[in-house]
Design a protein that fits this description.
Layout: E1 4-6, H1 11-18, H2 26-31, E2 40-47, E3 50-58, E4 63-69, H3 71-80, E5 87-93, H4 95-101, E6 105-119, E7 133-135, H5 140-149, H6 157-161, E8 165-170, E9 173-184, E10 189-197, H7 206-220, E11 225-231, H8 235-241, E12 247-259
């Protein structure tokens, strides 16, 4: 049998396949839901029981290619058409994906990433003492300015509109913020990101308090699993999450890629 490639697979088929490993596929499952669906192009390859999905995700600030499933199927998808991004981020890479994608792309800025996750009922602590403010749509301008000033490129306003964000203020100004990349109510999944503290005020426990309350609030909203990706050598961040109950569930490589 040979690989059959479909560049317009049904969302139902994609969801059924990606749900086989929901923690690995958390972002892709979320990208099947609005508002992310319109930015997401899914390609599917199948060969009997084997399958592969390549997600091409595009925003105004970055483009990403994210492979899932069999590496041979990813190779079939790439070979089936010529129009692929000239420059992008490649995520969820293992050695097999690296070999396949490396035939078309040169990689730089490679980073080893660890995926950590927590399930409902596993949160071990809920720190008190720091006053938090839930940030809502009226704070979009202030929040965007905070991230721009601190060179955090992964925030977009719809993450606030469809997600959950908390901040800490000092003298009226935001000094620490954390929230969600996406909240997927269909699959009861959420991904945490855009967590940042003013460097001059680190060490005060702001991030730990934000993450703990964010996690509990997401569980209260019906999420059963919450994930976060962290650089493998970022021990300081891991020491914030792991005592709260987050545990490693996977690892992969992430890199900047340019067509050869």
């Amino acid at each position: 049998m040979t690989w059959q490639v479909d560049f317009t697979p049904s969302d139902h088929t994609l969801h059924a396949l990606l749900s086989q490993n929901r923690l690995e596929s958390a972002y892709a499952l979320g990208d099947l839901q609005p508002p992310f669906r319109e930015r997401s192009q899914f390609s599917l390859a199948q060969n009997g029981a084997q399958w592969a999905i390549l997600l091409w995700y595009r925003t105004s600030t970055f483009t990403a290619l994210i492979p899932y499933g069999a590496a041979q199927g990813i190779n079939a998808i790439l070979a089936a058409k010529n129009e692929w991004p000239k420059a992008c981020i490649v995520a969820n890479m293992n050695e097999h994906y690296r070999q396949v994608l490396g035939q078309r792309y040169r990689f730089s800025n490679e980073q080893a990433i660890i995926r950590i996750a927590i399930a409902a009922g596993q949160l071990s602590d809920l720190p008190n003492g720091t006053q938090l403010e839930q940030l809502e749509d009226q704070h979009i301008g202030e929040l965007s300015a905070f991230y721009t000033m601190n060179d955090v490129p992964t925030f977009s306003p719809d993450q606030l509109h469809g997600g959950l964000y908390y901040g800490v203020r000092r003298h009226g100004a935001l000094v620490a913020v954390g929230g969600t990349h996406l909240v997927n109510s269909r699959d009861h999944l959420a991904t945490i990101g855009n967590v940042y503290t003013d460097p001059a005020l680190r060490g005060n426990g702001y991030v730990r308090t934000i993450i703990a309350h964010l996690t509990q609030s997401l569980f209260d909203q019906g999420c059963t699993n919450i994930i976060h990706d962290v650089k493998s050598n970022d021990f300081a961040t891991r020491q914030i999450y792991e005592p709260l109950g987050y545990q490693q569930v996977g690892s992969f490589w992430e890199a900047t890629a340019r067509l050869r």
